[in-house]
Amino acid sequence: MGHSTHGLALLPGYLAELESGAMRKQGEPGVVADHPAALTWDGLRLPGPWLVLRAMEIAAQRARTQGTCTVVIRRSHHIACLAAYLQRATDQGLLMLLTCSDPNTASVAPFGGLDAAFTPNPIAAGIPTNDIPVLMDVSTSATTNGLTNRLHKEGGRLPAAWVMDGHGVAGDDPAVLFKEPNGTILPLGGMDSGHKGYGLTLLMEALTGGLAGHGRADAKEGWGATVFLQIIDPRAFAGLDAFTRQTGHITDACLRQKRPQPSGRRAKKVWRWPANKAARAWRFTRPSCRR
After folding, report:
1. pTM, rounded to two decimals
2. What is the distance between the alpha carbons of residues 168 and 93, in angstroms, rounded to a whole number?
3. What is the spatial distance between Cα 67 and Cα 36, in angstroms, rounded to a whole number?
4. Are residues 66 and 161 in the same domain?
5. Are residues 38 and 120 located together in one domain of the fold?
6. At what angle do helices 83-90 and 48-66 cross, to 10 degrees?
7. What pairing do the DSSP bridges indicate for beta strands 38-42 and 163-164?
8. Does 73 reside within a domain?
9. Domain tally for the chain?
10. Hey, how many other C-beta atoms are within 10 angstroms of the C-beta on 115?
């Protein structure tokens, strides 16, 4: 999907966790609570992608009768790239929300603070439209642990001032995260409007650790995740056609935007989304469209 931190790069770590027993190879999740539209599991440190796919299947089935279903998983192992799950839902005309936190570590400080209290806490959403779906996956911090770790090993720099050293000075060098006093990743919005990312982070903590009843207040168990997954069936609301009419309209408006030009140059003709669906899909997957 164009990202180099959350795909096969995770495989050596996963295999090491399996070998050490930190990731379990066998078993089923424990059921903590079970209601028609709300299910809570103890993941028992089973593989995160397997747990998420199981949860998606059950949530989709229940959403078709209940309108929505939420599955919360505590003590899951790492769940990899959130964006990779979404199209499985949108292909069925379902809206999906997915977020996670890792209560076993912290690298993001609250806005205005110096001490790490959170993980990047990503949130992802899959939104069906009358054409190509919207697949959104963003962290509530300025960057991720995966990218800062990789760039630190390579001796590289971040594209902008996304981290802060242990004295509160923002910069682009991920090495500050590994020096005493330890630096932190800034909340989404950085030094000027990081209160927005901070607020979103608190919401993600409530949806994951709060609803699961297991998180940062408990003993650490190693690399893992607490997961919130919700499937919503638009058919139970105004209907799928009405839903995709609205989402299709707004995505079309986004895709047909004029592009800004350097000062002194005449604006080019408005760029139009290709009429042919195959051409649209090809253009969507080109690396230049993922920047």
Report:
1. 0.88
2. 46
3. 10
4. no
5. yes
6. 30
7. unpaired
8. yes
9. 3
10. 11
